[in-house]
Amino acid sequence: MLIAQISDFHVTPWGDLAYGRVDTNAALASAIDALNALRPQPDLVIGTGDLTQSGSDEDYQVLAKLLARLDAPFAPLMGNHDRRGAFRRAFPDLSGRLGPDGFVQYVQDLGPLKLVFLDTVQEGADDPDFCEARASWLRAQLDPERPTIVAMHHPPFRSGVTWLDPARSDWAAPLASALQGPHRVVRLLCGHVHRGIHTAWEGIVASTAPSTAHQVDLDLQPDAPPQLTLEAPGFQLHRWDGLAVQTYAAAIPGFASRFSPTPSAADAP
Question: Which residues, 6+ apart, have CB-to-CB distance to 241 below 8 Å?
């Protein structure tokens, strides 16, 4: 099975530029062109959150028109820029598949794989949250007999980019607890960081994907200010060969320059 992961589109209304300078809609269109050109085609494309910039219905209407050009099936999940009400309206096919308590969590079968999509959003805030209700639902989905990929927006590990990492380091404790039981989770796929990072977390290989648009500047100094960059965007391919997952990084042509984001909550990465 071949899964393409694209992330952090930050789609805006037609004609608007994110942060006044990034044409995120054109960037997503370029990413879709790159995905459509892949041979073989992905069995599924997943979008790991921040699909839109403001979470408005208008943003999602633009997103729908852009995604209509994508040849492969698409599976979305929530990011901190997304809003649950508008998200549900944008993806009505998910309505009968979502978990309880109002969270946007669901399961999708993909051949021998099970994909579990989690909601790590604390609506109205950039920092993540994962409560016991969400963890309890996850426990019920884990199958010790079936290889499973878990996807979510916020990575449960710290990225090292201090201004982007959440204030609470223990927010993912319920997630870690849910993964203590029997399972066969073979990969954790995340977004949010606008960069590719690979590490081990709770004994599982975990990774983040680059954005299809702007990236987060790779400055690991503790006092580094919020800064974004227009270096080449990209996506990732995850190949399940029956035994393990191999991940491939792919770049989409972009431009190399740095800029500071506006400091409002709505404009954070």
Answer: none
| DSSP string for residues in the chain | -EEEEE----B-STT--BTTTB-HHHHHHHHHHHHHT-SSPPSEEEEES--BSS--HHHHHHHHHHHTT--S-EEEE--TTS-HHHHHHH-GGGTTT--STT---EEEEETTEEEEE---B-TTSSSB---HHHHHHHHHH--TTS-EEEE-SS-SS--S-TTTS-S-TTTTHHHHHHTTSS--EEEEEE-SSSS-EEEEETTEEEEE---SS-EE-----TTPPP-EE-SPPEEEEEEE-SS-EEEEEEE------EEPPPSSGGG--
pLDDT of residue 182: 87
| pLDDT at res. 266 | 46
Three-class SS string for 87-111? HHHHCHHHCCCCCCCCCCCEEEEEC
Check if the beta carbon of residue 3 is closer than 8 Å to that of residue 46. Answer: yes
Between CA 250 and CA 269 the distance in angstroms is 21
**Average of pLDDT values for 63-88?**
97
Give the CATH number of the domain where residue 205 resides: 3.60.21.10
Residues of the domain holding 143: 2-267
Name the domain count of the chain: 1
Q: Taking all residues of the chain, what is their mean pLDDT, rounded to a whole number?
A: 93
Mean pLDDT, to the nearest integer, of 186-210? 97
- Look-up of token digits 């990034």: 22
Close Cβ partners of 131 (under 8 Å, ≥ 6 residues apart): 174
* Residue 4 C-alpha from the chain's centroid: 11
